[in-house]
């Protein structure tokens, strides 16, 4: 990091028109398991009152039938985004009876792997494909890993080119350690999650495992990790280099997955394909370039055809101390942090740097609050606290500019809270989780999360809820059911033909050369 970085950020910030800053948009996707009051997984079907998981614009499922995904629209302020997320939660809680939304990223008490229900989306070809994809995930990685939940933060700013978004992504990957340190909230897990598997965790209490200085087990070796994907040398230096890496992984057969096969002896589908990645979404990472896709379109084709439209931050844990999983101050910090990633110089990445970043992520996830922890930066090592403090200093003028534009001190206060966490790790969510577990629950994870679930449930059910709000969500439910029926009625293609057509390599290629890779 150059000594000139703060000056360049200031120059870039001053050159940024106010209407572009005002045009920043964000949306949130929040995953949560449905759990029984006793802390076990709810294995009931997706609640009928929530409509069709295939077509509902705000409420769907992730890997499991028991795993809700709540999706906001696109908003011009963090407050508006969190307001909608809160309303979605209010409706869900009024629709799931005695079940709870598990407020922690690491899962509740899980049954045997094969008893975790895979999400179902109906009889249409696209619905069947979504379920077969998840069946493939279960064969490749096991079902337990897929029950981990988190927050995805989608972000865009007008006037950013595709190359600009990739520059942001490169810097984000360099500095994501700070987000994992500041907002990681999964230092412990129910022992059922690792039953029968090596894990390297320490016993903290009955049925509870963890690490004393961990910040986010979700973002460490227990989380969304894959030895097969680790061999992917994905470069974020351009759309072309990124797309080429993914294209190869999407069409190249992988021997271990060829052994699984596409169908079993009875003709039942085991996965969509035998390639290293079945579809683009299987590629794990802390951040993704994204583009809204058209019906039937492959995400990689959309990126190649029209460029990057927004980015998706994927490293945020659920905050068990906040009823909806993410605080408004956290969203404000993310806005500042992402602008820093965009405005700072962003050198090209290299295989050596990519390996160092993976090492940094693993260290911070497992040992982030360890006194004196050092991370790799270039050819040297630097203390996490020192590096983090430097980034926060560079973020200060960005926070000031956003506060001047929107009023108040919310962005400055978010930075001050982050600085306090650097100076006193006991204030961090991961430390607060362990402290609360030890103080009131004998160090046990599930009883602590159960208590937080009940507090969140009572908080959200006690908030005002109008007949107009109820009618709005009931209308979305009914429309989603009609839309699913229409999709199923329109299907004429046999599923195997549909699968082969969707996965055809030519579906990944652009039909024309995108002008400057889009804006």
UniProtKB/TrEMBL annotation:
Key words of the record: ATP-binding, Glutathione biosynthesis, Ligase, Nucleotide-binding
Any single biological process term in GO: glutathione biosynthetic process
Top-level EC class: ligase
Keyword set includes ATP-binding: yes
UniProt cross-references to InterPro entries, sorted A to Z: Gln_synth/guanido_kin_cat_dom (IPR014746), Glu_cys_ligase (IPR007370), Glut_cys_ligase (IPR006334)
Catalytic function, reaction form: L-cysteine + L-glutamate + ATP = gamma-L-glutamyl-L-cysteine + ADP + phosphate + H(+)
Ranges for domain Glutamate--cysteine ligase: 19-364
Region described as Disordered: spans on this chain: 27-46
Annotated metabolic or biological route of this protein: Sulfur metabolism; glutathione biosynthesis; glutathione from L-cysteine and L-glutamate: step 1/2
Record-linked Pfam families: Glu_cys_ligase
GO molecular function, one term: glutamate-cysteine ligase activity
Annotated family: Belongs to the glutamate--cysteine ligase type 1 family. Type 1 subfamily.
Protein name: Glutamate--cysteine ligase
Organism: Leptothrix cholodnii (strain ATCC 51168 / LMG 8142 / SP-6) (Leptothrix discophora (strain SP-6))
